[in-house]
Amino acid sequence: MAEASTKWDANLYLKFADARMRPAMDLMARLDPANAERPGHAIYDLGCGAGNISRILAERFPERPVIGIDSSEDMLAKARSQTVDKRVTFEKGDLAHFRPSTPPSILYSNAAYQWLPGHIEMFPGLLKTLPSGGQLAIQMPRNLEAPSHALMREAAEAGPWRDKLKNVGGVIRVEEPAQYYDRLKPLCADLDIWESIYQQVLTGKDPVAQYTSSTGLRPFLEALSPEEGKAFYECYAGMIAKAYPTRADGITLFPFRRMFIVARRA
Ligand SMILES: C[S@@+](CC[C@H](N)C(=O)[O-])C[C@H]1O[C@@H](n2cnc3c(N)ncnc32)[C@H](O)[C@@H]1O
After folding, report:
1. Does residue 244 carry a pLDDT above 50?
2. Are 254 and 207 spatial neighbours (Cβ–Cβ below 8 Å)?
3. Which of 134, 191, 256, 266 would you label with 149, given CA atoms 20 to 30 Å apart?
């Protein structure tokens, strides 16, 4: 499968910030404040994007530095321009090769690792960088079989763009929760894995297609010229509108499954 693209549009992504904030907060609620008080340790926000969550981590845990890591210049520029707290810093880095420069007591990541092939193999190594009691907290969407994602592939095969989109990768398969459990449990003092399906409330024209065009649909759009991309987007948006109809009150419900992992190092 092709590598995920690094071209993120921070403004389009932030358009849906409210819907995306809730799982980030649900994950954060499971962090142990004691881990945010360990002298000499930092809290990492891996795949920090525009830094919204990094800033909340710093507010919630006022003792320690918060370091956001991301590979996208656009996201990092936005993150730096919106952050005044000197305790929060941002570094460019690829999560596939991440090694903390400061010892971490919390490794937090919201909606990033689903872009990395083989991420399940990275998690034990991340856990080992933590001190005993430190936490690895990860949230990933798990919707590859949902219409929002299945129809990307269907739309990719439904037009003259077919050949150009044949080898386009997208978000990587996020495995069944039990697989993460089996990989991590031997290293953990405790391990909490759960899933939630959020009934996201969207408004406006093509709301689900707009939502995915800032994430899962991007690699498809980037493989096409602007004109082809527009035609492909319209084909996909037409399919999606049938799968997620607008309700009588004008809103569109977009059910979205997310998996959470909170692992405490033994
Ligand atoms: C869906 S956004 C999530 C941003 C942020 N965590 C949030 O919840 O708002 C995914 C982020 O992961 C970053 N990302 C994807 N693959 C990456 C990689 N291999 N290394 C570093 N960052 C990556 C993207 O640049 C993007 O900012």
Report:
1. yes
2. yes
3. 191
- CB of 57 within 6 A of ligand 1: the answer is no
Percentage of the chain modeled with pLDDT above 70: 93
- Closest by Cα among 127, 135, 109 to 33: 135
Q: How far apart are CA 79 and CA 167, in angstroms?
A: 32
Q: Is 107 in the pocket of ligand 1 (CB under 6 A)?
A: no
Q: What atom in ligand 1 is closest to the CA of residue 49?
A: 27
Question: Which residue among 95, 98, 115, 218 has the greatest number of ligand 1 atoms within 8 angstroms of its CB, and so is best to mutate?
Answer: 115
What does the pLDDT look like over 43-68, one tens digit per residue?
999 999 999 999 999 999 998 999 99
pTM for the whole structure: 0.88
Assigned token pair, 114: 């689903």
Closest CA to 79 of 10, 6, 7: 10
Non-local (6+) Cβ contacts of 151 within 8 A are 236, 239, 240, 243
> How many residues make up the chain in this entry?
266
